[in-house]
Amino acid sequence: MAWKGERVQLVPLDEDRHLKNAMRWVNDPLVTQWLLIGDLPITRAAELDYFETVDKDPRQVAFAIETLDGEHIGFSGLHGIDYRHGFSGTGSFIGDPDNWGKGYGKDAVRVRSRYAFEVLGLRMLYSGAIEGNQRSLRMLAACGYRECGRRPKRYWKRGQFRDEILMFLEADQAPTATP
Ligand SMILES: CC(C)(COP(=O)(O)OP(=O)(O)OC[C@H]1O[C@@H](n2cnc3c(N)ncnc32)[C@H](O)[C@@H]1OP(=O)(O)O)[C@@H](O)C(=O)NCCC(=O)NCCS
After folding, report:
1. Among 64, 79, 54, 55, residue whose Cα is nearest residue 22
2. Is the pLDDT of residue 38 over 80?
């Protein structure tokens, strides 16, 4: 089962296919430079527990990102889903820096947005980017997210307090094709 885009597919987490890469990436300071995870070591036991329990939480949907030919390149998810208000947080990362800037992130965001709006029936998505994460901000903007505000100096990240930039996407601003 996969939700497919033009370049990537979103697939369920699979311990055999995705856990080893997850361990490598969430403990790589380059990958976590702009993430809210990764400042503390993440053990295999903790990551395995996440893989095994995330689907029991109805407020979360977690996907691995793969290329269309099945190479695992990252993770993408919906977090804190609020069905009553049709709202959810979103987050993603592409693990190998060699794969950054090639359009995989944008394609994965578009597939996730269509899934959130057309499959889950949500109406609004939110992503909080840490000030300075230009690649993420441009990815989100290219996929229809717009900045609606900032929480000043919200996060301590790599040596200083940084703003959280609040990015929102409404269903009628998202791509319309079915994944
Ligand atoms: C952020 C991330 C998911 C984006 O995925 P990606 O595949 O690299 O992004 P894409 O190639 O689809 O798009 C990147 C956009 O940033 C631009 N970009 C690429 N390199 C850049 C750089 N060094 N500085 C600024 N912008 C850059 C691209 O031109 C593109 O914007 P455009 O469509 O306006 O031209 C990925 O780089 C990543 O995982 N980074 C580390 C973790 C992270 O920051 N996750 C997001 C947390 S909110």
Report:
1. 64
2. yes
- Residue 100 alpha carbon to ligand 1 centre in Å: 6
CA distance 126 to 147: 10
| pLDDT tens digit sequence for 68-109 | 999 999 999 999 999 999 999 999 999 999 999 999 999 999
How are beta strands 60-67 and 8-12 bridged, if at all? antiparallel
Our answer on whether the CB atom of 26 is closer than 6 Å to any ligand 1 atom is no
* Alpha-carbon torsion angle 76, 93, 109, 154, nearest 10: 100
Report the SS3 class of residue 103: coil
- Residue 80 corresponds to which tokens in the numbers above? 């804190």
Cα 167 from Cα 139, distance rounded (Å): 11
Cα-to-centroid distance, 105 and ligand 1 (Å): 7
Environment class of 139 (CB within 10 Å of its CB; exposed 0-12, middle 13-18, buried 19+)? buried
Enumerate the H helices of the chain as residue ranges: 15-26, 44-53, 104-114, 134-142
